Amino acid sequence: MGERGAQGPGAVEAFRWWGRMAWNPLDTYGALARRYGDAVRVPFGRNRAFFLLSRPEHAERILVANQDNYVKAFTYRPLRAVLGDGLLTSEGETWRQHRRVVQPVFAHRHMVGFAPQMVDTAAQAVGRWPDGVVLDAAGELRRLTLGIVGRALFGSQLEGEAERTGQALEALQRGAVVGTFMPGATAKRSVYQRVPRLGSALEYLDGMVQRVVGGSSGGELLRLLEESGRFNEAELRDEVLTLLLAGHETTAASLAWTFVLLSKYPAARDRLEDEVDEVLGGGEPKAEDVDRLPWTKAVLSEAMRLCPPAWTIERDALEDDVVDGVEVPAGSTVAVPPYLIHRNADVWPNPEGFQPERFMSGQKHHRYAYLPFGGGRRICVGAGFAMLEATLVLATIARTHRLDLVPGVAVSSRAEITFRPAGVVPMRVIRR
Question: How far apart are CA 400 and CA 11, in angstroms?
Answer without folding.
Answer: 57
